[in-house]
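If you are new to this repository, start here. Below is one unmodified record pulled from the training split, so you can see the exact layout before writing a loader.
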Amino acid sequence: MEYIYAALLLHATGKKIDEKSISGILQAAGVKVDVARVKALVASLSEVNIDEAIKLAPTLAVAQAPETSPTPKEKKEEKKEEKKEEEAIQGLGALFK
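And here is the target side for that same chain:
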């Protein structure tokens, strides 16, 4: 996957996707570079419109965490905050009388 990530990084930055650039990124990341894999990747990407491939890629739906009801302590804190807000609003009202 790191080979693909290197190619996507180059694409995202508008750089040319070639063997030297991909190898440089992989080496900078501490990956032992397999020259044959780099050559195969560059050759396979030469005919691909990467922007179009990204648009057509399936997306994964992210499951949302179930909502939990507030604990009694949280309810008390919410009421205190609401009361403070109401007091502040009433205090502002005195300025306009």
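Two things worth knowing about this chain: Residues 65 and 84 are 31 Å apart (CA to CA). The radius of gyration is 28 Å.
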